Sequence to fold (75 residues):
Amino acid sequence: MKTIVLDTTGKLCPFPLIEAKKQIAELNAGDTLVIEYDCAQATENLPRWAVEDGHEVTNFKQTGDAQWQISIQKG
Fold:
């Protein structure tokens, strides 16, 4: 299994979600996508999309004043 890091810091929503969808499509089941972002809207959009799409959120943390990191394991 592999882990891919997607840094979308500085990109406006919905860019983090769009890029996450593209990236996870290229991964195999069990692989992990780590997304770093600073768009507050994505704190709701990314976890909701992951669960609705059958993936598992394995880590979700705030890394700065307005920065977050979420890890999504492909289902």
Summary: The chain has one domain: 3-73. The longest strand covers residues 56-64. The mean pLDDT is 97. The CA atoms of residues 23 and 33 lie 8 Å apart.
